[in-house]
Write a structure and sequence with these properties.
Blueprint lengths: L7 E5 L5 H16 L6 H20 L4 E8 L2 E10 L3 E9 L8 H15 L3 E7 L4 H7 L3 E6 L2 E6 L2 H4 L1
Length: 163
C-alpha cells in the first residue's frame, strides 16, 4: 500500500512488538484513565488486561493484516486491516500522541481508500462516538451506516466500489 507522506511506511507486526503495541494502546486510553484516581500500577494492570482482551479479539479476524506505522524508521502507530471480498475493513488505526494531527492519519486513510478503489472495495471502520477521529473520518467522506450504541459503523464507497 502506497502512503503519500514523506517517511511514512508500514511493516508487519512481529512478536518483538508487544511492548510497543501496549504503549500505543495505552496512549489511546490515557485521557479516559486520568480521572479514575488509580495508581500508575493499577492503570498498568488495567491496560495490560484490556490490551490482551483486544489483542485476542483482533487476532480472531479472518484475512487480517497487522501493521506497525513508522515515520523515518521510528514506530508511531499501528493499523490493522481486514481484507473482505467487497470491503477493506480498518480494524484499528492508532497513532502515538506525538504523531497525531500531523496528517499521518489522513495519509493512511487515503492509502486505504486507494487500496480499496484498486480492488473494487468500500472502506469500513468502527469508531466510538466520542472519539475525536470521528470528525476526520466524516471530513474524508465516510458515511454513518449504523449506530451501534457506543460505536458508529462508517463506510466510504470508492469510485470503483460504487460502479
Amino acid at each position: 500500500m502506497h502512503i503519500d507522506y514523506p517517511g511514512l511506511a508500514l511493516r508487519p507486526v512481529t512478536d518483538n512488538d508487544r511492548e510497543l503495541l501496549i504503549r500505543i494502546y495505552r496512549s489511546t486510553r490515557e485521557e479516559e484513565l486520568r480521572p479514575t484516581g488509580w495508581s500508575d500500577e493499577q492503570k498498568t494492570q488495567f491496560i495490560a488486561m484490556q490490551f490482551q482482551a483486544q489483542h485476542q479479539a483482533y487476532s480472531a479476524y479472518a484475512n487480517a493484516e497487522f501493521l506497525i506505522v513508522e515515520h523515518d524508521g521510528t514506530p508511531v502507530g499501528r493499523i490493522y486491516l481486514q481484507h473482505k471480498q467487497t470491503v477493506l475493513h480498518i480494524i484499528d488505526l492508532s497513532l502515538l500522541p506525538a504523531a497525531r494531527n500531523l496528517g499521518m492519519g489522513t495519509a493512511l486513510l487515503q492509502a486505504c481508500f486507494a487500496s480499496g478503489a484498486s480492488s473494487g472495495k468500500a472502506v469500513h471502520i468502527h469508531v466510538e462516538k466520542f472519539n475525536p477521529a470521528l470528525q476526520l473520518y466524516l471530513r474524508l467522506g465516510f458515511q454513518i451506516c449504523e449506530d451501534k450504541g457506543i460505536y458508529l459503523s462508517l463506510e466510504r464507497e470508492t469510485a470503483t466500489a460504487q460502479a
